[in-house]
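RETRY 2/3 - previous attempt timed out on the joint model. Re-submitting the same 960-residue input unchanged.
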Amino acid sequence: MNTEKTLIRGARVLGGPARDVLVDGETIAEVGTGLSADGARVVEAEGQVLLPGLVDLHTHLREPGREDSETVLTGTRAAARGGFTAVHAMANTFPVADTAGVVEQVWRLGRESGYCDVQPVGAVTVGLAGKQLAELGAMHESAAGVTVFSDDGKCVDDAVIMRRALEYVKAFDGVVAQHAQEPRLTEGAQMNEGVVSAELGLGGWPAVAEESIVSRDVLLAAHVGSRVHICHLSTAGSVEIVRWAKSKGWNVTAEVTPHHLLLTDELVRSYDPVYKVNPPLRTRDDVLALRAALADGTIDCVATDHAPHPHEDKDCEWGAAAMGMVGLETALSVVQHTMVDTGLLDWEQVAERMSFRPARIGRLTGQGRPVSPGEPANLTLVDPAYRGRVDPAGFASRSRNTPYRGNELPGRVTHTFLRGRATVTDGKLA
Amino acid sequence: MGNTDNTGSGAPPADGAPGRPVLEGPDIARVLTRIAHEIVERAKGADDVVLLGIPTRGVHLAQRLAAKLAEITGRPTPVGSLDITMYRDDLRLRPARALARTEIPGDGIEGALVVLVDDVLFSGRTIRAALDALGDLGRPRAVQLAVLVDRGHRELPIRADYVGKNLPTSLRETVRVQLAEEDGRDGVLLGLRAAAAADDER
Amino acid sequence: MERHLISAADLTRDDAVLVLDTAEELARLADRPIKKLPTLRGRTVVNLFFEDSTRTRISFEAAAKRLSADVINFSAKGSSVSKGESLKDTALTLEAMGADAVVIRHHDSGAPHRLATSGWIGGSVVNAGDGTHEHPTQALLDAFTLRRRLGTGRGGDLGGRRVTIVGDILHSRVARSNVHLLSTLGAEVTLVAPPTLVPVGVHAWPCEVSYDLDAVLPTSDAVMMLRVQRERMNAAYFPTEREYARRYGLDGGRMARMPEHALVMHPGPMNRGMEITADVADSDRCTAVEQVTNGVSTRMAVLYLLLGGAALGGAPGHAAENSAEENT
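RETRY 2/3 succeeded.
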């Protein structure tokens, strides 16, 4: 049990006026001005923004099975550096997290790491094969308490299986997080289908392959009265569909990745596989639509889709390369760059979209809570004035497949507190 | 021009001195007439002579010589061009160059007396390359060399059979041959290399 | 031209004309007793083929040998590459062997670009066809053939000429390279294909698109027929071979609607009875065989211009034209 006291002095809580925040043990004791530092470690936070600890709905920690690219320990260390205090670990591990045993293992490894809460996501279908429902109830009842289910990496493309999954999770207020990718329309797909793919001769990944599944699933969720969550929404068309579904009052939520808020398919002209990702980078128009949708709440939250890959899986030709990019350690900087510095979001809205909402969608308790006395001290302190170039050599992640290498991005997480204990101090892992 | 003979001919010096004339148009005409007579004399009538000019200005000189030979002998002399670019020994010192035309007259060079024609003889490397190129085209009875200017500084054991003008030069100098077909006027100018000119100013 | 030839789009008009002019001179070598030049003596050209393509490989091989380069043929099929060795490790091996140029054919679009920009090798990279991306030397030899047949000589381009490219545009690296190169050379390019075989995004290409072959034939100076793989039928790109041939194949009747001077081109290998009938393929107007011959001269020109000069350099030819630089 943590009994230390920490006084965070002069931080702009959720971007508001400067306040002192006193953390006592695992909880926030007091928020005010001129608080006494008596017996507390003091963190001078003048000019910095204090946020609730960030929550990621979409992280690939790779353990078990691909420990060469990430482990629960290295992934949660990366999460802490990025300001996260909870991450949802996706189910596409080896073995697949489709049983109570595997999700409990991941959950236990997360607790042992101590850097970040790890909430396992359970697979929707056995082996992500899309044929037979996994034991969703057993995973929910396990120590891991799974509420989010996803075959991420694969789409639950069978309409009947998707309908049954949506219905089934109603029994325990679960949610199905859909990787929206119509498989037949994306056979051999390598990048967004459009002007650039035509020129580069890379197999096109049409927007409609995502939008057709999003359309179907919001209708299914409405029909069975369940809730569906759209993973890494990436097209302007998907935004329109989700906006329409929400206008009907249906229980639909959606996430967008930091990279889809910033990068476009023009980057693929380099044929550098660091830009190869699923869903693919889209066009400038899509990027702007995604930013607008995140600003107006059509898209509920930012999720990293942190997808570590070993060097050799990216140091090759485009066609042979793995899809995905790491994102935990750059997410907040990209959101500041694309949403805050552009005036689309203020810091309170960032807290909503990177902490409160994702925690609510994942039904997490003790995460995504207000910065108020009595609440758990899951806190992230960010210096928004910082400017620096992204240097993957400094990553805590085991992998380096970032598309931002050498790019200048604003903002830096200086401190992260997980239930009162500093996991990051002065930008370094504690 | 075909000048492996560094600082040979043709092109104007980058921005060195404009150069002082050492041969004017009438001099060039007279010199070519003399060479034509020498060829007829040495070849005993020039029955089997084939003139091959080395591009660019050597080709024009070869054509002028052919006309003069025709005047003297009363019958046409076969004339063509021999591009030596692909045989140069300094290809890798500079960016790849555009190729010029190799045009061998109808009856070929087999058993003929080939007279290579170039504007300036300098290091001799161009002629070395031309001999190699010739070897891939056939087996002449003999090969001779005619040049408008011999400026010395040979780097290979090569000498010209017919020389328009021997022009002792320093390596700091440039020899610039102008021909009406390429340059709008005839003349040979002696100038200073741009770098040398700059040195002098210092 | 830069140090590599990856995409026809990288060639300026002057670059392209220089290649064609150089090829024109090199083509004359065929009439000489010794069809070989010493230019690339001591240099090593590796033909790195991840895909079978005998005709392209032997064309490059003949080109390199006529320039006296040492040629190493590396067929990646059946080698360690098919056992999981990466392009990178293969490249490092070639680099260690001292390859001055790597001619690469690869099933993945972008593999030559990757090879040229990754730092794995120091030599020149020549794209001999990558996936469904580009095949720039094919476009150059096609442009060479067009320029010869349509009468603009040395130094000239294809200004105002109308070239129609017919067939599987979507999967064709030949079409992509030709659209870039022919438009750079001033030609007006029209693509004709069933809509299923035209890529989404084609509107950004410097060409027209038509679905009606008969409408464009009377105004075409050349019609380039692309090979259409019968397997495409199984992916529903078109209903049947018969319907494809009827709507988009070139037969004697259609050829008769072309202007008298117009050419029929084909990059080979031909699918007789599919995109082209035998009588058209064997007619005097069909340049398919001539294209193969021209391929060797064109590839010699490319290898010479990439390898014949200093290892690093700007545009070749510019310096030669402006020989002031040579003389300093």
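The interface with chain B takes residues 18, 21-22, 25-26, 28, 32-34, 36-39, 67, 304-311, 313-328 of chain C (CB under 8 Å). Closing ticket.
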